[in-house]
Amino acid sequence: MDKPREDYNDKQVVSEIMARCFIPTLVTSISWEAFHFAGHEIRITEAMDCYGAVVWPSALVLCYFLETNAKQYNMVDKNVIEIGAGTGLVSIVASLLGARVTATDLPELLGNLQYNIFRNTKMKCKHLPQVKELSWGVALDRNFPRASNSFDYVLAADVVYAHPFLEELLLTFDHLCKETTIVLWAMKFRLEKENKFVDRFKELFDLEEISSFPSLNIKLYKAMKKNRRSA
């Protein structure tokens, strides 16, 4: 019996996405992984003792989408913020595609994040990415005042999992987005919490599923704030 075409396409695209990552043959004292996106080899240093400093498949899915849909979602000169940037791979790809990027994460991850971003974007990008601390739901008005921060895109990969800060994450999405801001969000579904968060998210945002990868349990969403006046 033939496989359904949707399943075939899923496996084909997932294979292409995963092929963007390869293990270097060069042995060094510092372990790193290499990725091919936006016409560049990107070298990422990970920390295996921390979830936030590992490249997860959702990040690869989002990077692949940004690269292969660069005309529809043009990053050139756009103000982009990534929340939960981790190793910085998504921010690096957005920067290589021409965006003005602010990569954010918890304070303990900023050292590795800054290192990866600097080594992969120096002399390669139109705009040098910025790295900032962002603890979800904390001091948002002070650190990211609405009056002086206007983002065209908010990027997020695998920010929803079994952590106790889902309400703070939702508050952060809401704070960073204006009515014209586009959220591009890749999420791996693991537990019921993910479904509940999507339901809560849809109370504030119009959510559209733009890609699905069943073999990875990952969905890619586009979202924009609901027009609250009409709502």
Automatic annotation (TrEMBL):
CDD domains for this protein: AdoMet_MTases (cd02440)
Superkingdom of the source species: Eukaryota
Record's protein name: Methyltransferase like 21E, pseudo
One GO term of the biological process aspect: methylation
Sorted UniProt keywords: Methyltransferase, S-adenosyl-L-methionine, Transferase
SUPFAM superfamilies recorded: S-adenosyl-L-methionine-dependent methyltransferases
GO MF terms held by the record: protein methyltransferase activity
